[in-house]
Amino acid sequence: MADVFIKTHLILIFKQHIPIDPLNKLIESIIYFKNYQPDHKTERVVPDGLTSLIIELDGKSRSVYDNEKSEPVMKLEKAWLSGIKSQYLTIQAIPDSEMIVVRFKPGGIYPFFQKPAELLTNRIQPVEELAPFQVIELRESIKSDASLESKISSLENWLEEQIDYSLMPEPLIEFAIEYIQSNSTEQLQKVVTKSRYSKKQFIHLFKKYVGLTPKLFQRIIRFNEILRKVEQGEFISWTQVSADCGYFDQAHFIRDFKLFSGFNPTEFLRNHLENERINFFPYE
Question: Under a CB-based contact definition with an 8 Å cutoff, are residues 212 and 205 in contact?
């Protein structure tokens, strides 16, 4: 009985680490958590414009589910890359989870794994298929590190060794990403004009580094602004929120919201207003 009592009263350990130069140019954050105890079986991961490297440290596999049929379609073990998403992902929630996650900024994945970001779009790629042995060895090293600080240090040292500086995002792409993030309701023609490329060439270059077209990336940034407004607002008017985020058509707003989250706005507000994680939502 003592073992059961201790296990059900484990304290969640959570750490969000912001790396310094040069990693901060490409990585938004490194997140570590241990003793995660979900009260649901699955959760939805909604698009946030980022690509993630996930390393599990608990020895447990996770299932990815078909969004429509709710059936497992893929098993995840040890480490994997989750590419930038244009739709929500349904994944198994595991008790007693321990993970370390690298969240790459838009345009940040290419210099590490030397593959265009669009090859990972809406995909989950087991890391051993991309970089044989390296990440698996890293995982073993992180597992053996005694302290949280040493785990993060081992990961950062490895990441710095992987950077191919010849594949860093072009200044144009950095400008385009920053412009979209700061002006999510503005027309993108200004960026195309500044690029001196044709529209087709610019879209091709943007997809290479970011993984999505500029327009779709803008829609995802706009969707995340909606999530933040919902999180901060005491009274939510969907008409006002959609107008503030640049939607001129209520039907378009609802369609995007459903595509990215799997919920209609009213259902989302009813079930997830007090959710602590802005891009992860309990499902069932």
Answer: no
Yes or no: say if 76 and 128 are a contact pair by the CB < 8 Å rule: no
Q: Residue 221: count other Cβ atoms within 10 Å of its Cβ.
A: 21
- Rounded distance between C-alpha atoms, residue 174 and residue 38, angstroms: 37
One-letter amino acid for residue 191 of the chain: V
Looking only at the bridges linking them, the beta strands covering 27-36 and 62-65 are: unpaired
Amino acid at 77: E
- In 3D space, the residue among 266, 204, 248, 282 whose CA is nearest the CA of residue 46 turns out to be 282
Indicate the fold that domain 2-166 takes in CATH: Jelly Rolls (2.60.120)
Q: What is the pLDDT of residues 79-109, one digit of tens each?
A: 999 999 999 999 999 999 999 999 999 999 9
Structure confidence by residue, pLDDT tens digits, 126-158:
887 776 558 989 999 999 999 999 999 999 999
Residues 43, 283 contacting (CB under 8 angstroms): yes
**Global pTM value:** 0.90
Domains of the chain, by residue range, sit at 2-166
Exposed (0-12), middle (13-18) or buried (19+): which is 181, by Cβ within 10 Å? middle
Q: What is the DSSP letter of 120?
A: S
